[in-house]
Design brief:
The chain is mainly beta and 123 residues long. The protein is built from no helices and ten strands. Strand 7 and strand 8 form a beta hairpin. The radius of gyration is 13 Å and the shape is globular. The termini are far apart.
Length: 123
């Protein structure tokens, strides 16, 4: 059974940092593009960042460019999302998903979603 697990969320003040992690079981993580999405209360889930199979390509939403960094840890078969200079508007549940394709920011192109991890940024 394929399962993704997100960890690392929490409560942080504006301007602070958090690092989220996404681990997988039941699939070879390096066979997939891995993306992070987020969903704030009352809003639709939106794309945040993605990293290619080899880790050489990354993609970011305009709202997080320059503040968030996505990366792969091949030794631990994990994908991280380093979030710096956090803002209250970054508050959301963050999810990771896996995709066979590269370049898409659409939710429909990702699957095997985890349960999410809550990030709350206070002002």
């Amino acid at each position: 059974q394929v399962q993704l697990v997100e960890t690392g969320g929490g409560l942080v003040q504006a301007g602070g940092s958090l690092r989220l992690s996404c681990a997988a079981s039941g699939l070879t993580f390096t066979d997939y593009t891995v993306g992070w999405f987020r969903q704030a209360p009352g809003k639709e889930r939106e794309f945040v960042a993605a990293v290619s199979r080899g880790g050489g390509s990354t993609n970011y939403a305009d709202s997080v460019k320059g503040r968030f960094t996505i990366s792969r840890d091949y030794a631990k078969d994990t994908v991280h999302l380093q979030m710096d200079s956090l803002k209250p508007e970054d508050t959301a549940v963050y999810y990771c998903g896996a995709s066979w394709d590269w370049g898409s920011k659409r939710i429909i192109d990702f699957g095997s979603w985890g349960q999410g991890t809550q990030v709350t940024v206070s002002s």
